[in-house]
Amino acid sequence: METLLSYLISASAGIVLFYSVYWLFLRKETFHQANRFFLLAALLTSTLLPVFPLQYTVLAEAGTNAPVRTIADTFKNIPVTEAINNNGTVFNWQHVLLVIYLTGAAIFMLRLLIQTGVLLSLMIKHRMKSFEGVRIIENEKYGLPFSFFNVIFINPKFHTQDDLPEILAHEKVHIRENHWFDLLFIELLTVIFWFNPFIWFFERSIKQNHEYLADKGVLAQGHTVARYQALLVNQLMGMQIIGITNNLNFALNANRLKMMTKKKTPHIRGVKFMWALPALALLLFAFAEPEYQVTAQEKETGEVQASKLISQKTIKLNGTIVDENGDPVPGTSVVVKGGTVGTVVDRDGTFSLDVPENASIVLSFVGKKTIVDSYAELTSEKQRDGSFARKYTLKDAVIEIYNRSAEGEQLAPPPPPPPVKGAKSSGNESALTPPPPPPPAKSGETEVFIVVEDMPQFPAGYEAMQDYIAKMQQKIAQEKGVKGKAKVAFTVNAAGKVTDIKVVEKDNDAAAKGAIAIASNMPEWKPGKQRGKAVPVKYLLPVEFK
To answer: Any stretches that span the bilayer, and where are they (predicted)?
Structure first.
């Protein structure tokens, strides 16, 4: 739907631009034959250029912030939730536009079919005659003479035998120069672009130019201007009925009569057609699409040059990714190491990827430990169809709290939260954006976050937390004589309280109890927030009693 709307808008812009060039610079000149081809070429260019845009190459180095379509295109598999109104029904304004557009297109197509059917019925009903090398059908339905393909329709009641030479000469020009093709082409375009008034301007200009060509052809055969103009004036009371035909009195006005006697435009003024070049250049620029080619040098870390990965032979890898509970992890990023080829895991936890020979893959998800799988491991389980299957389990990457060592040296602070979507890049981030957030928790479960937009904050800040841990370690070691190391995991819940305290590692029971005491006696934190909502966050606290 969006593709259709985008095409109609883009093509309509080209139609408006090219007609403006014709109206401003060419419509009053006597280059009628050149104008004919300009009008047809303008319509062809406007309608085909959005479908076959100009391609240009953009070289992007791997590891930069240059956009990589290979990765971005995979996100189209992520399900999208449509907006729902208060009544619970899906409403999409694009559907309304589509219905209106298709209704209009159907009406104008029906109009074209009816007009064609009427002419075909006349050809079947009335006997066709040959006169001076052309086919003529005499009918009483239409008063004006006109041509349709290679047949001329004449009403004998409205035309005397003396008028026939000029009428036939006029219609012969239409038939000889195949003006029917132009008419059929523009009529089909009016069905597609019926909503664009400039397509109707194009139709009128094409038909008017046909009449200029026919008038020129009649006068070139020796017919006098005065007699021919008098014949045309006699047709003023008639009106055009069939849009797909060339009518003798179409656009019969002062301009048409003046054009017969107008001095031929000098060839030098043909340079006006050059005005089409800026219009064409503008459309080429507007519709051009970049084609990214990633280039990178091989690094000592063993990363493979992206351009080489693309050219190598590949294997088909079908994988499944689950968490520690066995539940799927949709949205996990699966990327060929050192390149930009990758995919995103579906809702059922599965993915399929063509992996170049001797390449490794990297599996990553926010809050989970990254997995790097070598080519040897990838090809360990071959299936009957020649593909390879792998199953991965992503484990939680809990945030570890660092505290001061015995010598008082301050260790590195915990890693910063992931960049917020839409924030400006500092230039040091990876070219690959973080994968989407984890799926919603099942009914009855509490979703625990590892990394959130706004991390929890200890009262008075990170320095105060380090002071608290150091004092508690010293107090417990001195008062209870505890020695050894231990690690406890805990959760700062949505209310800011420390809960779910569990011992992960311990040298002895005393060290484990001391670590639990440090965590359980922590004051309330300022809770972390995900998209403005308070959420629980996991932490890991290592302590050492000396």
So the answer is: 6-25, 37-56, 98-122, 179-202, 270-288
